[in-house]
Specification:
mainly alpha
């Protein structure tokens, strides 16, 4: 996706949604529901649950440019 020029936000949303669907076993989990779960996790984590993922996506997208 990054190689195709997708934004890091879009790639993060795809990864998070896919992982939550896999973990919950709910293939019908919507993107909006997954993002809400991610938002709730970020609220309880002072360091951001997805900090490493965001950093890696930024690193990868920088190499593709």
């Amino acid at each position: 996706m990054i190689g195709e020029g997708e934004s890091t936000k879009k790639v993060r949303t795809y990864i998070v949604s896919t992982k939550f669907r896999t973990v919950t076993g709910d293939r019908n989990l919507t993107e909006a529901q997954a993002l809400k779960i991610a938002e709730l996790l970020d609220e309880v984590s002072p360091k951001s649950v997805f900090k490493e993922l965001d950093a890696e996506l930024r690193r990868m997208s920088g190499k593709k440019k």
